[in-house]
Amino acid sequence: MQKLKLYLHYHRRLLAFNLPFSLLVSVVSMAISAKGMIGLINGFSLSLLTGSFVLSVYFYGQRYGQQYYFYHNMGISKQELIVSAFLLNAMLAVLLFCFKLCLYA
Amino acid sequence: MPEHKLEADSIIYNIANRQLLTDIYLSCETGEIVGLLGRNGSGKSTLLRIIFGTQPTANKHIRVNGTAYQAPYKHRNLVAYLPQHSFLPDNLRLHKIIELYFQEPDKRKAIQEHERTKPHLNKFPDELSKGELRYFELLLLLQKDVKFLLLDEPFSGIEPIYTDRILELLEEHLSTKGFIITDHNYSTVVRISDRVVLLTDGACRSINNPEELVEYGYVPASAFS
Fold first, then answer.
1. Domains of chain B, start order
2. Which of A27, A34, A44, B39 is the most interior residue, by most CB within 10 Å?
3. Which among A13, A66, A75 has CB closest to B74?
4. Cβ contact, residue pair B85, A66, below 8 Å
5. DSSP letter at B74?
6. pLDDT tens-digit readout, B76-131
């Protein structure tokens, strides 16, 4: 439970970088897609798991790299943090996918 | 209280084409403060990170009580590391950090009701002075049940009153923990350490009397005159 809270905390920190990039991509995706809302969800989900995610890890490292020791002192490695953040994003993408299915069912 | 021994052996670390650490051996027992001195760029922080397990290296052998660990920090209750710069998230208030770090009510209470922490519980880390922040970080790590603490420049840039307060804290926990301390405030390190080791030319050299620091060119000859 304690570790889960730390994973969630790291995920929230990454989202601060990830969300603006993903939103930007989703708006562009919506603009160029024939089905606006689907384009938005697809663009957002894809960006959340790929480019924006990589950028968020990079920017977090640049700005808050020292804070990895906050987690290391609790026995959590950098790889575990990144994998957990990715999985949480993947869960978010699955929820958005379900929402998309409901929307066009 | 059972004694524990941390040994860092055969540590080799290369940076570019230069061998920064060449076959290092360093040990520390619980109840002991080992002072690690060395000039800028000699590899003190790198050595601490290698012992902690977060710095990949060409070769290392870290043992606690004879058992080898590849990444000691992943094993709870072994080792904690206080890095040179603050490691606390700046978006959490101190009371939240305490709650995230400790589930045990007695540990939380020990920090929350500490006379020097209590007034700052609702503040963010960057609202504290450097001395207050360093003190809080150390207090946090000392509450962990680790056997060894690696302190990277704990006295750097803090006022003398906080240096003494930090020393008091270390003494309080000395019966259950071992400390490896590196700092450029060599007079304090020499004063508080049971053993002093100088990291020079990639190797650890035991310092038996402070004058040897002059011989190795770490401090000027005037330092002890």
1. 5-224 (3.40.50.300)
2. A44
3. A75
4. yes
5. G
6. 899 999 999 999 999 999 999 999 999 999 999 999 999 889 999 999 999 999 88
